[in-house]
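note to self — DONT lose this again. spent like an hour looking for the file last time. sequence + predicted structure for the chain T wanted, 225 res
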Amino acid sequence: MAKILLVEDDPTLAKQVKDWLELEHHQVEVSGRGLDAIERLKFFQFDLVLLDWNLPERNGIEILTEFRNAGGTTPVIMLTTRDSITDKESGLGIGADDYLTKPFHLRELAARVAAIVRRQSRVYGGVLKIRDIELDATTRLVTRNGAEIKLQPQEFAVFEFFLRNPKEIYSLDTLLGRLWPSDSDASPETVRVCITRLRSKLESTDYPSVIKTVHRVGYQLDPGT
């Protein structure tokens, strides 16, 4: 799963893209205005940005330039009707990672999104494993020795995130920013409750908790070795 910011002022296209990518289990936030997109990129973290060129208030090139100048490293795919070589050079030259000309097929966009997400991921395989537990990112199944462990979508997202970042320690605020929509009512306590539920489902008599608490810092995956 990737947390994606879609910056697109055409509501019909935005809904089509959002619905398609959410069917592939990505979390998609939509912004239709340039200034709003800048604010979101300033205060929230995303795994990928889909950025239209022509936008009200600030265009895509201005948004991308400001984002890169501020040190933003999130991958960006430009979406635009501009198809000249000069326009593509402009977008790629200021830091876009890919460039897709409208109109495009949603399957092609999804394939490009998947390619970038794979490159960003620290684990490339579809099946992630810790101890006797396996998570299959393709089938969305979590099993222990072949028996399914039923997780809610947000629990699955949290567990997958830890599996793909096994050595990192994450605070509640960081997890909230990475895995929950920026416009949701979720709080650090929401994250804490989710992790508590996840731990209870992943508990085993043979191992301590899969996700351990690092005192006064946050949470980290515990391989139990």
